[in-house]
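Example 3.2
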Amino acid sequence: MKKTLSRVTLLIAIVMMLPAAPAAAQPIPQDVVTVGTSTGAPFASVDVPVYIRDTSGTPLGIDQPPGSRIQSYSLKVNYAPASAVSSVTFTRGGITQSLTPTFESSPSGPGTITLLDTFAENTNLIPFTSNAALPGNQVATLHFTLSGTATPGTSITLTFDPVLTQLTDQMGSPGTRENVAAGNLLLVAGAINIVNAHGPALSTWGLILLAVSLAFVALRTRL
């Protein structure tokens, strides 16, 4: 009996000396930047919303102390094929539309456009809703005019540049900057789905039936 107890005690001691199993890694909270998906026809104007979701627990946010709020952003959107777009502009929208930025710029190039905005926190706090349902709060709008080469049945892809799309506080502090490389910013792509401006074409039999129907209506009218 004593030998059995000694063995049990030894086993317990060995188990207690073993290293504890590592705790499961907790995912890093991420704010989310999303470009929406819209539908348009060749030569049409199409508006595409852009959103930011303020997630609690990230370096920036409404839940953080003053000085660590999302008050500045760089949103660089790439679109392809560029030939399907005649023109594009990028403006404030949603919760930032009525705010006055201390700095604003929208540089563009072939197949790409960027919106840069900075707002003073004490006078123009961006009123994000913490942990809002995805995609979050709208902060900007892309205004596209499609070209004649936009082919119905295809899509124009809209993606964020993973390096130059960032969120910061009003001072651009490195300690609170959020981007893909830091793992605290998630980017969600969108698209413009191209449709026929006049709807689906009628088949040959459909055209014949339409012609017969119109002829019948005309005959009844004369009678």
